[in-house]
Amino acid sequence: MSADSTPTTDATRTAGAASPYAGFRLGKSLVVAIDGPSGSGKSSVSREVARRLRAAYLDTGAMYRAVTLHCIASGIDLQEGSAVEAAARDIELFISTSPDRESVTISGDDVTAAIREPEVSSAVSAVATTMGARAELIRRQRALIAGAGHRIVAEGRDITTVVAPDAEVRILLTASEEARLRRRGDQLGGTQSEVQLKQQVIDRDAKDSTVVNFRQAADGVVTLDSSDLDFEQTVSAVLDVVRTVAH
Length: 247
Ligand SMILES: Nc1ncnc2c1ncn2[C@@H]1O[C@H](COP(=O)(O)OP(=O)(O)OP(=O)(O)O)[C@@H](O)[C@H]1O
Ligand SMILES: Nc1ccn([C@H]2C[C@H](O)[C@@H](COP(=O)(O)O)O2)c(=O)n1
Fold this sequence. Notes:
Layout: E1 13-14, E2 25-26, E3 30-35, H1 42-53, E4 56-59, H2 60-74, H3 81-90, E5 93-95, E6 104-106, E7 109-110, H4 118-128, H5 131-146, E8 151-156, H6 159-163, E9 169-174, H7 177-187, H8 194-208, E10 222-225, H9 231-246
Parallel strand pairs: 3-8, 3-9, 4-8, 9-10
Antiparallel strand pairs: 1-2, 5-6, 6-7
Helix pairs in contact: 1-9, 2-4, 3-5, 4-8, 7-8
Adenosine-5'-triphosphate is lined by residues 36, 38-45, 61, 183-184, 187, 226, 229-231, 234.
Protein backbone atom coordinates (compact mmCIF):
# COMPACT_ATOMS: atom_id res chain seq x y z
CA MET A 1 0.00 0.00 0.00
CA SER A 2 1.33 3.40 -0.87
CA ALA A 3 0.30 6.96 -1.64
CA ASP A 4 1.58 10.21 -3.03
CA SER A 5 0.69 13.55 -1.50
CA THR A 6 0.74 17.26 -2.02
CA PRO A 7 3.98 18.73 -0.71
CA THR A 8 3.38 20.97 2.26
CA THR A 9 5.57 23.77 3.53
CA ASP A 10 7.67 22.97 6.57
CA ALA A 11 8.05 26.62 7.53
CA THR A 12 6.16 27.46 10.70
CA ARG A 13 4.58 30.81 10.00
CA THR A 14 1.16 32.42 9.74
CA ALA A 15 -0.15 33.12 6.24
CA GLY A 16 -0.59 36.80 5.26
CA ALA A 17 -3.99 38.47 5.68
CA ALA A 18 -4.62 38.52 1.90
CA SER A 19 -3.99 34.79 1.61
CA PRO A 20 -6.87 32.28 1.54
CA TYR A 21 -4.94 30.52 4.33
CA ALA A 22 -5.12 33.59 6.58
CA GLY A 23 -5.47 32.52 10.19
CA PHE A 24 -3.87 29.12 9.72
CA ARG A 25 -0.55 28.22 11.29
CA LEU A 26 1.44 26.84 8.39
CA GLY A 27 3.77 24.02 9.29
CA LYS A 28 1.69 22.95 12.29
CA SER A 29 0.38 19.37 12.10
CA LEU A 30 -3.30 19.26 11.19
CA VAL A 31 -5.59 16.27 10.63
CA VAL A 32 -9.13 17.19 9.54
CA ALA A 33 -11.49 14.20 9.88
CA ILE A 34 -14.85 14.36 8.08
CA ASP A 35 -17.61 11.74 8.22
CA GLY A 36 -21.16 11.70 6.96
CA PRO A 37 -23.83 9.78 5.07
CA SER A 38 -23.91 9.16 1.33
CA GLY A 39 -24.46 12.26 -0.78
CA SER A 40 -23.77 14.67 2.08
CA GLY A 41 -20.85 16.10 0.07
CA LYS A 42 -17.94 14.59 2.03
CA SER A 43 -15.72 13.78 -0.94
CA SER A 44 -16.21 16.92 -3.03
CA VAL A 45 -16.13 19.28 -0.04
CA SER A 46 -13.14 17.54 1.62
CA ARG A 47 -11.13 17.58 -1.61
CA GLU A 48 -11.71 21.34 -2.03
CA VAL A 49 -10.97 22.04 1.63
CA ALA A 50 -7.69 20.10 1.24
CA ARG A 51 -6.74 22.17 -1.81
CA ARG A 52 -7.36 25.41 0.06
CA LEU A 53 -5.40 24.22 3.09
CA ARG A 54 -2.63 22.89 0.83
CA ALA A 55 -3.22 19.59 2.57
CA ALA A 56 -3.22 15.98 1.42
CA TYR A 57 -6.60 14.32 0.91
CA LEU A 58 -7.68 10.75 1.69
CA ASP A 59 -10.90 9.24 0.30
CA THR A 60 -11.29 6.14 2.49
CA GLY A 61 -14.45 5.04 0.66
CA ALA A 62 -12.29 4.53 -2.44
CA MET A 63 -10.31 1.90 -0.51
CA TYR A 64 -13.48 -0.08 0.35
CA ARG A 65 -14.48 0.22 -3.30
CA ALA A 66 -11.07 -1.05 -4.48
CA VAL A 67 -11.27 -4.15 -2.29
CA THR A 68 -14.80 -4.77 -3.59
CA LEU A 69 -13.67 -4.52 -7.21
CA HIS A 70 -10.72 -6.80 -6.48
CA CYS A 71 -13.08 -9.43 -5.00
CA ILE A 72 -15.50 -9.22 -7.94
CA ALA A 73 -12.68 -9.42 -10.50
CA SER A 74 -11.02 -12.35 -8.69
CA GLY A 75 -14.22 -14.33 -8.24
CA ILE A 76 -14.13 -14.00 -4.44
CA ASP A 77 -17.54 -14.56 -2.84
CA LEU A 78 -18.43 -11.32 -1.06
CA GLN A 79 -20.51 -13.25 1.48
CA GLU A 80 -17.41 -15.26 2.58
CA GLY A 81 -16.06 -13.10 5.41
CA SER A 82 -12.69 -14.84 5.71
CA ALA A 83 -12.05 -14.61 1.95
CA VAL A 84 -12.96 -10.91 1.91
CA GLU A 85 -10.69 -10.28 4.90
CA ALA A 86 -7.83 -12.09 3.14
CA ALA A 87 -8.45 -10.02 -0.01
CA ALA A 88 -8.23 -6.79 2.02
CA ARG A 89 -4.90 -7.99 3.49
CA ASP A 90 -3.41 -9.21 0.21
CA ILE A 91 -4.47 -6.46 -2.18
CA GLU A 92 -1.62 -4.34 -3.62
CA LEU A 93 -3.44 -1.04 -3.35
CA PHE A 94 -2.22 2.45 -4.20
CA ILE A 95 -4.31 5.55 -3.59
CA SER A 96 -3.25 9.08 -4.42
CA THR A 97 -3.48 11.51 -1.51
CA SER A 98 -3.12 14.55 -3.74
CA PRO A 99 -6.42 16.50 -3.91
CA ASP A 100 -5.51 17.36 -7.50
CA ARG A 101 -4.91 13.82 -8.73
CA GLU A 102 -7.57 11.15 -8.30
CA SER A 103 -5.78 7.83 -8.79
CA VAL A 104 -6.36 4.33 -7.45
CA THR A 105 -4.42 1.29 -8.68
CA ILE A 106 -4.54 -2.42 -7.87
CA SER A 107 -1.28 -4.24 -8.64
CA GLY A 108 -0.38 -1.30 -10.88
CA ASP A 109 -3.66 -1.37 -12.87
CA ASP A 110 -5.58 1.92 -12.95
CA VAL A 111 -9.01 1.33 -11.38
CA THR A 112 -9.86 4.98 -10.65
CA ALA A 113 -12.98 4.94 -12.81
CA ALA A 114 -13.89 1.26 -12.37
CA ILE A 115 -14.40 1.58 -8.59
CA ARG A 116 -17.24 4.08 -9.26
CA GLU A 117 -19.22 1.65 -11.45
CA PRO A 118 -22.77 0.79 -10.21
CA GLU A 119 -21.77 -2.89 -9.77
CA VAL A 120 -19.17 -1.84 -7.20
CA SER A 121 -21.49 0.69 -5.52
CA SER A 122 -24.17 -1.90 -4.99
CA ALA A 123 -21.72 -4.52 -3.64
CA VAL A 124 -19.40 -2.39 -1.49
CA SER A 125 -21.46 -2.68 1.72
CA ALA A 126 -20.51 -6.37 1.87
CA VAL A 127 -16.86 -5.37 2.31
CA ALA A 128 -17.70 -2.45 4.61
CA THR A 129 -19.60 -4.80 6.96
CA THR A 130 -16.83 -7.44 7.08
CA MET A 131 -15.06 -6.53 10.32
CA GLY A 132 -11.74 -8.21 9.44
CA ALA A 133 -11.58 -6.24 6.19
CA ARG A 134 -12.40 -3.04 8.07
CA ALA A 135 -9.57 -3.69 10.56
CA GLU A 136 -7.06 -4.06 7.71
CA LEU A 137 -8.26 -0.95 5.87
CA ILE A 138 -8.28 1.08 9.08
CA ARG A 139 -4.66 0.02 9.65
CA ARG A 140 -3.71 1.18 6.14
CA GLN A 141 -5.65 4.44 6.52
CA ARG A 142 -3.86 5.29 9.75
CA ALA A 143 -0.52 4.64 8.04
CA LEU A 144 -1.48 6.90 5.11
CA ILE A 145 -2.54 9.69 7.48
CA ALA A 146 0.67 9.35 9.49
CA GLY A 147 2.75 9.41 6.32
CA ALA A 148 0.99 12.33 4.65
CA GLY A 149 3.18 15.10 6.02
CA HIS A 150 1.96 18.09 7.98
CA ARG A 151 -1.67 18.19 7.09
CA ILE A 152 -4.38 15.98 5.66
CA VAL A 153 -8.14 15.97 5.21
CA ALA A 154 -9.47 12.40 5.54
CA GLU A 155 -13.11 11.51 4.94
CA GLY A 156 -15.37 8.50 5.27
CA ARG A 157 -17.75 7.01 7.80
CA ASP A 158 -15.54 6.27 10.84
CA ILE A 159 -12.68 8.76 10.58
CA THR A 160 -13.84 10.97 13.47
CA THR A 161 -14.56 7.98 15.71
CA VAL A 162 -12.21 5.09 14.85
CA VAL A 163 -9.50 5.92 12.29
CA ALA A 164 -8.44 9.30 13.69
CA PRO A 165 -10.34 10.05 16.92
CA ASP A 166 -7.44 12.32 17.97
CA ALA A 167 -7.67 14.50 14.85
CA GLU A 168 -7.36 18.22 15.58
CA VAL A 169 -10.63 18.86 13.69
CA ARG A 170 -13.56 16.40 13.58
CA ILE A 171 -16.68 17.17 11.58
CA LEU A 172 -19.89 15.26 10.82
CA LEU A 173 -21.13 16.64 7.50
CA THR A 174 -24.86 16.00 7.17
CA ALA A 175 -27.69 16.99 4.84
CA SER A 176 -31.37 16.09 4.70
CA GLU A 177 -32.40 12.94 2.87
CA GLU A 178 -34.11 15.12 0.27
CA ALA A 179 -30.96 17.20 -0.36
CA ARG A 180 -28.75 14.12 -0.59
CA LEU A 181 -31.04 12.40 -3.09
CA ARG A 182 -31.25 15.58 -5.16
CA ARG A 183 -27.48 16.06 -5.17
CA ARG A 184 -26.77 12.46 -6.17
CA GLY A 185 -29.44 12.67 -8.89
CA ASP A 186 -27.88 15.86 -10.30
CA GLN A 187 -24.39 14.36 -10.04
CA LEU A 188 -25.50 11.38 -12.15
CA GLY A 189 -27.06 13.70 -14.73
CA GLY A 190 -30.66 12.68 -14.11
CA THR A 191 -30.00 9.16 -15.42
CA GLN A 192 -31.31 7.37 -12.32
CA SER A 193 -34.89 6.68 -11.30
CA GLU A 194 -36.14 7.60 -7.84
CA VAL A 195 -35.96 3.93 -6.83
CA GLN A 196 -32.36 3.58 -8.06
CA LEU A 197 -31.30 6.73 -6.22
CA LYS A 198 -32.92 5.52 -3.02
CA GLN A 199 -31.04 2.20 -3.31
CA GLN A 200 -27.72 3.96 -3.88
CA VAL A 201 -28.08 6.51 -1.10
CA ILE A 202 -30.61 5.52 1.58
CA ASP A 203 -30.47 1.72 1.42
CA ARG A 204 -26.64 1.67 1.26
CA ASP A 205 -26.44 3.94 4.33
CA ALA A 206 -28.83 1.62 6.18
CA LYS A 207 -26.52 -1.38 5.54
CA ASP A 208 -23.30 0.51 6.31
CA SER A 209 -24.66 1.98 9.52
CA THR A 210 -25.06 -1.49 11.02
CA VAL A 211 -21.31 -1.50 11.72
CA VAL A 212 -20.40 2.17 12.10
CA ASN A 213 -22.23 5.26 13.36
CA PHE A 214 -22.12 8.16 10.91
CA ARG A 215 -25.62 9.48 11.64
CA GLN A 216 -24.93 11.12 14.98
CA ALA A 217 -21.87 13.05 16.05
CA ALA A 218 -19.70 11.51 18.75
CA ASP A 219 -18.58 13.67 21.67
CA GLY A 220 -16.37 16.51 20.47
CA VAL A 221 -17.40 16.16 16.82
CA VAL A 222 -18.86 19.30 15.20
CA THR A 223 -22.06 18.70 13.20
CA LEU A 224 -22.37 20.73 10.01
CA ASP A 225 -25.75 20.53 8.27
CA SER A 226 -25.32 21.55 4.63
CA SER A 227 -28.97 21.06 3.57
CA ASP A 228 -29.49 24.77 2.97
CA LEU A 229 -25.93 25.59 1.91
CA ASP A 230 -24.51 25.48 -1.59
CA PHE A 231 -21.13 23.87 -2.30
CA GLU A 232 -19.07 27.03 -1.79
CA GLN A 233 -20.90 27.91 1.44
CA THR A 234 -20.24 24.39 2.74
CA VAL A 235 -16.52 24.60 1.96
CA SER A 236 -16.38 27.98 3.75
CA ALA A 237 -18.27 26.58 6.74
CA VAL A 238 -15.76 23.70 7.06
CA LEU A 239 -12.85 26.14 6.82
CA ASP A 240 -14.48 28.26 9.54
CA VAL A 241 -14.62 25.20 11.82
CA VAL A 242 -10.96 24.47 11.06
CA ARG A 243 -10.03 28.07 11.90
CA THR A 244 -12.00 28.01 15.14
CA VAL A 245 -10.92 24.60 16.37
CA ALA A 246 -7.35 24.36 15.10
CA HIS A 247 -6.08 27.92 15.34
N1 LIG B 1 -23.47 21.88 -0.20
C1 LIG B 1 -23.71 21.36 -1.39
N2 LIG B 1 -24.69 21.88 -2.14
C2 LIG B 1 -24.99 21.35 -3.34
N3 LIG B 1 -24.34 20.29 -3.89
C3 LIG B 1 -23.35 19.76 -3.18
C4 LIG B 1 -22.99 20.25 -1.92
N4 LIG B 1 -21.98 19.49 -1.43
C5 LIG B 1 -21.74 18.58 -2.38
N5 LIG B 1 -22.54 18.75 -3.45
C6 LIG B 1 -22.61 17.92 -4.65
O1 LIG B 1 -23.31 16.73 -4.29
C7 LIG B 1 -22.82 15.63 -5.01
C8 LIG B 1 -22.47 14.50 -4.04
O2 LIG B 1 -21.33 14.90 -3.28
P1 LIG B 1 -20.19 13.87 -2.86
O3 LIG B 1 -19.95 12.86 -3.93
O4 LIG B 1 -19.04 14.69 -2.40
O5 LIG B 1 -20.91 13.16 -1.61
P2 LIG B 1 -20.37 12.05 -0.63
O6 LIG B 1 -20.87 12.40 0.73
O7 LIG B 1 -18.90 11.88 -0.77
O8 LIG B 1 -21.13 10.75 -1.15
P3 LIG B 1 -20.69 9.20 -1.10
O9 LIG B 1 -20.34 8.90 0.31
O10 LIG B 1 -21.90 8.46 -1.56
O11 LIG B 1 -19.53 9.04 -2.03
C9 LIG B 1 -21.63 16.15 -5.83
O12 LIG B 1 -22.06 16.39 -7.16
C10 LIG B 1 -21.27 17.45 -5.15
O13 LIG B 1 -20.67 18.39 -6.03
N1 LIG C 1 -14.44 5.07 6.34
C1 LIG C 1 -15.33 4.44 5.54
C2 LIG C 1 -15.49 4.80 4.21
C3 LIG C 1 -16.39 4.13 3.44
N2 LIG C 1 -17.09 3.12 3.96
C4 LIG C 1 -18.00 2.34 3.12
C5 LIG C 1 -19.39 2.86 3.05
C6 LIG C 1 -19.72 2.96 1.60
O1 LIG C 1 -20.79 2.10 1.24
C7 LIG C 1 -18.47 2.50 0.85
C8 LIG C 1 -18.01 3.45 -0.24
O2 LIG C 1 -17.89 4.75 0.29
P1 LIG C 1 -18.17 6.06 -0.61
O3 LIG C 1 -17.19 6.02 -1.73
O4 LIG C 1 -19.57 5.94 -1.12
O5 LIG C 1 -17.97 7.20 0.33
O6 LIG C 1 -17.47 2.31 1.81
C9 LIG C 1 -16.92 2.77 5.27
O7 LIG C 1 -17.59 1.82 5.75
N3 LIG C 1 -16.04 3.43 6.03
